[in-house]
Write a structure and sequence with these properties.
Length: 130
Amino acid sequence: DVQLQASGGGLVQAGGSLRLSCAASGFTFDDYAIGWFRQAPGKEREGVSCISSSDGSTYYADSVKGRFTISSDNAKNTVYLQMNSLKPEDTAVYYCAAEGGWGCTVVAGTVRPRMGYDYWGQGTQVTVSS
């Protein structure tokens, strides 16, 4: 049974930090890239970051580069998204997803899976107050 469990969201003031976690189970973690994307009300979904579990390659959207850091603990089948210097425009529901085999890329400043995500997790709300 495939599961992607996102957690760590919350309410934080602008300039603050949060760390999101995505715990995966039910598939071979090392064979997948794990991505984070976010959805804010009235806005298009935005791919935020992605990491290849096999070689550690990382990808970031222009909007978060230098502020967010993605990392992977393969022993725990968990991917983290450390979010620093948060801004009100980072407010959104954040989701993690798994892409098997082809990895991620950056297109027009946003992160996308090369062949689409295979598995999706539920979201975690991040709210940044000004």
